[in-house]
Amino acid sequence: MEKKSVVLYKNQAAVIEDRDGDKYLVRYLVSAATPTGKKAVYGEQKVREKDIILLHNNPCSSLENILAADGEKFTSMLHEAWELLQSDDSTAFEPLSFSDLADLACSGIKTDEIWAFYKVLASSSEFLLNQNEIKNGNLIFTPRSQTEIDALNQKNYEKEHEAEIREAFIARLKQKKLNLPEDAKFMGEVEAFALCKTEKSKVMQEAGFSQTIEKAHKLLIDTGIWDYTKNPHPSRFGFSFSSASEQLGPMPEEERVEVPGISYAIDSEHSNDPDDAVAWDGQYLWVHIADPASSVLPDSKIDIAARGRGTTLYIPEGASRMLCESALEDYALGLKEDSRALSFRLKLTDDCQIDECTVLKTKITVHRMTYKEAEDKKESPELKPLFEIARKNKARREENHAVTIQMPEVDITVDKETKKVTVAPDEKYESNGMIAELMVLAGEGAAKFAFKNQIPFPFVSQEAPEFPDKIPDGLAGDFAKIKCMRKRSVGITPAPHAGLGLSFYSQVTSPLRRYGDLIAHQQLRAFIDGRRLMPKDEMLEKVAAGDAASIAAKKASRKSDTHWKLVYLLQNPELTFEGVCIDIRGNEALFLIPLIDMQATIKGITDIELNDKRTLKMKKVDIPELSADFEVV
Questions:
Q1: What are the φ/ψ torsions at residue 239 (nearest 5 degrees)?
Q2: Least confident window among 61-65, 135-139, 376-380, 439-443
Q3: What is the DSSP code (8-state) at residue 129?
Q4: Please, which pLDDT band fits residue 504 given cuts at 50, 70 and 90?
Q5: ∠ CA(347), CA(352), CA(354), 5° rounding?
Q6: Sign of CA dihedral 298, 302, 307, 308
Q7: Tell me, what's the pLDDT at 606?
Q8: Cα-flanking dihedrals φ and ψ of residue 209, to 5°?
Q9: What is the Cα–Cα distance from 216 to 194, expressed in whole angstroms?
């Protein structure tokens, strides 16, 4: 570089005044002159060659003249150069050096004008400066496409007119008449607030809307940003719509007891994650449970991720699983010819007391069956003993004042493409109750096994409810019982579970989808293998963390169910339903609609008694508020 050459130093113009060995002395502007009369200040600095980039090697007249040069004429010259490059596919997006582009746009450019040309080029929307090449001391520019230029110009326009553009948007928002899709980008803040990802919305405040998530939800629907079918509830509780990503891998090889005969995984026809199977061998009741604890070690990445979810989230759109989807193939029961399980072998007395419980790692053969199929075969030699055991166990528990509540349940499905909702009663068979009773026996057996062997264990208990002297029959009676039930507790000491009518109980039958059950399995396996057991405090701390996440999942699931039921009502406004009066409060009657498992309060109703039936029809639905009004017809 020669003396008086123009260079780029810290992204501003500088002139080489001298050379001292391997360094150059450059002169540059420190601060410009001001309108108040303050003079420009210049500075000098010795720099290495790598700190500067040559703009023009011919000598300039002075730094002052360099800085004073007008570059307006170069705008049209650069545009003509861009059009010339675009006219040929081989050059349309071909990178050019700064000097080549200067020669192409304005051949013979004067040295004193080179800084002015560079400023116009660097700010041009038609050419992109390669930032990575600057680090190597090169100025390389690439022509942009027309689409890129339009987008950049629009972005620059919006930046320059930000205040007035936002003001116009707010005015449209107040009237709930947005220009879509252009205005959608401004509503991202409202969406984040409606999904509980932020605590407030400046956009809503400026538009004069009260800042509640329900108001935000309504605003998003009213403006067309969200469809009324949008379900925000899992996101509000911090759940994604995808399952856990941490991979378990195939089940490890280890010594297992081979259980002869066929075991039966009996579940809903919609289930694809069977985690239990049952069998009677003439002497023992076998309850086989999926065995993910064979791979999920305490405090591993998979364990910590499962603890954060607490449970598998079931919503009408599908399942967001506590463990990865791929785990089902290896760990669910009956999806392969041979299954591996953690099994509870129970020896029962004639009145279904547990005389002995043994916990084993097993290899089993499983046959899958729906509740309906099991119902049809309940007199078969394989299933009849299981039904008889279940009946005896239920009778035993009822003698111990177990609480039986049978409220209607429904199955909700949503078509992923059309969002059409189907709500159908969940048909119950004796086989449903049979499996439930055998799972209760497994939980009771596990609790007794843990207590006998002094294993720190998550024992589940429930205090006895205080029922009124007289409880009505039917659904009204079941509703009255629900209001009296106490919350369950998890502790390190066994205590009665009054709701089940048991002295010992723990949940162990769903380790694929409940974190507390997975913890219980980890403790049982550690005991069987002679490994370290989690201390009581450590175990309870983990169970409590899993329970907290599980409670959030249950709320998300319940609210999601209500959301889709309301969508169903909007999609079928002509439907009428039979409602059963389950409570009377002054001049208000609370109805249960079994067909859709919803409650409806009717005001001003007279001459009605508990369990009386009325025909109801939807009058109004409020999706954001998760509410529906019904009227008697």
A1: -105, 140
A2: 135-139
A3: E
A4: very high
A5: 45
A6: positive
A7: 83
A8: -95, 140
A9: 5
Q: Read off the tokens for 280.
A: 């009677």
Coil vs helix vs strand at 288: strand
CA-nearest of 547, 524, 458 to 495 is 458
User: Above 90 in pLDDT, residue 157?
Assistant: no
Phi, psi of 74 (to 5 degrees): -75, -20
pLDDT of 340-352, one tens digit each? 999 999 999 999 9
Q: Which H or E run includes 521?
A: helix 515-529
Distance CA 491, CA 98 (A): 74
Q: How many Cα atoms occupy the beta-carbon half-sphere of 77 within 13 Å?
A: 18
> What's the pTM?
0.80
- Does residue 583 contact residue 601 with C-beta atoms inside 8 Å? no
DSSP three-state, residue 207: helix
The structure tokens listed for 458 are 């998550």
Q: By percentage, how much of the chain surpasses pLDDT 70?
A: 100
With beta carbons less than 8 A apart as the criterion, state whether 599 and 593 touch. yes
Which of 177, 202, 174, 171 has its CA nearest to residue 188?
202
DSSP 534: P
Coil/strand/helix, residue 613: strand
Mean pLDDT, range 148-154, rounded to an integer: 92
Q: Taking the chain, what is the end-to-end CA distance rounded to the nearest angstrom?
A: 94
Q: Are 422 and 497 in contact (CB under 8 A)?
A: no
Q: Are 455 and 521 in contact (CB under 8 A)?
A: no
Q: CB-based contacts of 167: which residues, under 8 Å, 6+ apart?
A: none
CB 594 within 8 A of CB 616: no
The angle subtended at Cα 57 by Cα 56 and Cα 62, nearest 5°, is: 75
Q: Are 623 and 221 in contact (CB under 8 A)?
A: yes
The stretch 39-54 carries a mean pLDDT of 94
Checking if the pLDDT of 128 tops 90, the result is yes
DSSP state of 514: B
Write the CA distances from 496 to 391, 393, 441, 523, 540, integer angstroms. 21, 16, 14, 21, 18
Query: How far is residue 82's CA from residue 105's CA, in Å, rounded to a whole number?
Result: 9
Q: What phi and psi values does residue 159 have, to the nearest 5 degrees?
A: -70, -40
Q: Round to whole Å and give the CA distance between 603 and 379.
A: 49
Q: Which residues pair with 589 in a beta bridge?
A: 584, 602
Q: What is the pLDDT of residues 24-44, one digit of tens each?
A: 999 999 999 998 989 999 999
Contact predicate 575/566, CB 8 Å: no
